[in-house]
Specification:
307 residues; binds pseudouridine-5'-monophosphate; 11-stranded mixed beta sheet; binds manganese (II) ion
Length: 307
């Protein structure tokens, strides 16, 4: 069976010309933000990547195919699809063989990006170890994917709806480098700092690119997590967001499995009267910019090795 991949015209052109490509996930579009902000944000994120000298590839599943880059009409349709499946590693093959419309999480986007030869991926925040995981066992498949699939993921850390110390512990156990970008602190999505130190720090995209290429040369499995704090002007300080997170968590009794993350995001959106969404948009754009820079640097290194 051939790989069920369909590339957008823009991605096909980029790959034939050897230009850098940055992958983007689609769960943030279908399950992370309301319409029409989800569509506007997806379009702005793609623009930000083009402005950074790379080509965007938003990834989603439709009609039995993995789409690597969505044509404008397909993006528009996806943003208004209310019953898209949230697809992680466990659901990927079933979603394709059944021909469902699926939005890819960080884990599934990494798998698809790697199949398409894309090495860098920008998102908002990764999934992680949920609070109370010692009884629920709710640990996002994103963490295991980072341990096995060689894609560098740029995110604003992980949300404080998660248990961040345990999330960092699992990443360390799984051998995932967590690199604070121009920061010594592990960022907490809406806030610039979680109060926890970032295990590693790098200040230049070229350094992150070199580390990515070195991991590959060593034959180490897995990717890197680049933790890029939200821009200062967009952050919601921890003392403001923490009680809201606590309220959202206490409202989430009875919500389980895949529903947890979308439920909490939506509840926090309501409780902040939309401010959390504005912050989310700002940090995704910021991550796109950094990811484009890293993709350009990896591309330069690969071209140099060829020539
Ligand atoms: N973080 C966000 N917005 C999102 C998600 C994470 O700020 O929409 C999505 C991502 O697609 C991530 C997924 O991979 O939630 C994690 O879900 P879970 O916790 O069920 O693994
Ligand atoms: Mn989960």
């Amino acid at each position: 069976m051939p790989l069920p991949l369909i590339q957008s015209a823009e991605v096909t052109d980029a790959q034939s010309r050897g230009l850098p490509v940055v992958a983007l996930e689609s769960t943030i579009i279908t399950h992370g933000m309301p319409y029409p902000q989800n569509l506007e944000t997806a379009q702005r994120v793609e623009q930000e990547i083009r402005a950074g000298g790379a080509v965007p590839a938003t990834i989603a599943l439709m009609g039995g195919h993995i789409h690597i880059g969505l044509e404008p009409d397909a993006l528009n349709t996806l943003a208004q699809t209310e019953n898209a499946h949230k697809v992680s590693r466990a659901d990927l093959a079933v979603c394709l063989s059944e021909g469902w419309t699926g939005a890819t999480t960080v884990a599934a986007t990494m798998i698809c990006a790697h199949l398409a030869g894309i090495e860098v991926f920008a998102t908002g925040g990764i999934g992680g170890v949920h609070q109370g995981a010692e009884t629920t066992f709710d640990i996002s498949a994103d963490l295991h994917e980072l341990a096995q699939t060689p894609v560098t993921v740029v995110a604003a850390g992980a949300k404080a709806i998660l248990d961040l110390p345990k999330t960092l512990e699992v990443l360390e156990t799984q051998g995932v480098p967590v690199i604070g970008y121009r920061t010594d602190d592990f960022p907490a999505f809406w806030s610039r700092s979680s109060g926890l130190p970032a295990p590693l720090r790098m200040d230049q995209p070229g350094q992150i690119a070199a580390a990515h290429v070195t991991r590959g040369a060593l034959g180490l499995t897995g990717g890197q997590l680049v933790a890029n704090p939200i821009p200062p002007e967009a952050e919601i300080p921890r003392q403001v967001i923490d009680p809201i997170i606590a309220a959202a968590l206490s409202d989430s009794t009875g919500i389980a499995a895949k529903e947890v993350t979308p439920f909490l995001l939506n509840r926090i959106f309501e409780l902040t009267e939309g401010r959390s969404l504005q912050a989310n948009i700002a940090l995704v754009l910021n991550n796109a910019q950094v990811a484009a820079g890293i993709a350009c640097e990896i591309n330069k290194m690969r071209q140099k090795n060829l020539g």
